[in-house]
Amino acid sequence: MAQLSLKEIRAKLLSNQNKERTSSNDGASYPFWDIPEGETAHLRFLPDGDNSNEYFWREMQKIKLKFSGIKGQSNKPVEIQVPCMEMWGETCPILTEIRPWFKDNQLEDVARSYWKKRSFLFQGFVRVNPIQEQNSPENPIRRFVINKTLYTTIHNGILDPDMEEIPTDYSHGTDFRIVKGKKGQYADYSASSYSRKTSPLTEEELKAIETHGLFNLNDFLPKKPDADTLNAIAEMFQASVDGEQYDPDRWAKFYKPFGLKTDDSATQSSGFTKPADTAGTDDDTPPFDTGTPAVEETVSAPASTTASTVESGKKKTPQEMLAEIAARRAGN
Q: What's the Cα-to-Cα distance from 172 to each of 118, 164, 166, 203, 242, rounded to whole Å?
């Protein structure tokens, strides 16, 4: 299936508006979160190399699992990110487990910490680069892992009737400008937007596409878990909730935390891993170490069905909440 036209993309986006998917060390990922405050990067998005993709991006959904350490190695908290099965339109065992927790206002915060997060994979040229990169890749076609906030700006820009051509058009496309500001202690990209002027790709850019080809974005998404991997994800989730440490003997062949020591020096950490002590809540923090870091945003979790009536001073701590969940499990 060929890429949809601008009109068809608009219609498809509008029809999906009310509905509620990287791992490579080639250096192609552009770290836009390193843009200096007050500066702007100009990106020119390109089509997906996979002609079956109707859009020029791919969606990724992931879930964070935190552990109190690595069994037999360290008591330092670590974090693993695993793919959410809803990315493939299938039932996610973790979300199935935690959805009822939103009915308990004392467990809601714990449930939200395990809710899926979304990011979006694009590719294109960096036409204006305010980052002083030390080792830019030979191939000027870069990948961009975009958070939900920036994606919404990209999405809404396509729906703008003033945009007459699809942004990826080689002759009449439009640059997307990422403007980095600051809101409180966090990075703010709300001023980002499409350029109002169209422009053709340069001869140099066209030659780069001919020489290097376009990325197949699907190649940089997580592998769909098989039955054994799903069982491991379920085990890791339970261990995480129960406050246990990550067990390399049980799970290293599936997903590994950053910093795990193994006998096989050739073994690489999973693409869905990241040190827990570097995790942040702001849009400026890459969530995993794959050569294609990303910024992320939590997907809207189910609204609480109970009023927050806990009296001041009586609300349970996260540790008490986790202990309660563990006790419930033990009683089943």
A: 30, 9, 8, 14, 55
Q: Please give the Cα distance from 8 to 20 (Å, whole number).
A: 20
Is residue 47 within 8 Å of 168, Cβ to Cβ?
A: yes
pLDDT tens, position by position, 198-253: 999 999 999 999 999 999 999 999 999 999 999 999 999 999 999 999 999 999 99
Helix (H) or strand (E) holding 109: helix 108-113
Q: How far apart are CA 275 and CA 77, in angstroms?
A: 8
C-alpha 205/C-alpha 221 separation (Å) is: 25
Q: For the whole model, what pTM was predicted?
A: 0.72
DSSP 114: T
Q: Which domains does the chain have, with CATH numbers?
A: 6-331 (3.90.198.10)
3-state secondary structure 231-262: HHHHHHHHHHHCCCCECHHHHCCCCCCCCCCC
Q: How far apart are CA 283 and CA 296, in angstroms?
A: 6
Whether the CA torsion 302, 307, 309, 312 is positive or negative: it is positive
217: Cβ–Cβ under 8 A, 6 or more apart, which residues? 48, 49, 50, 53, 57, 58, 121, 122, 123, 143
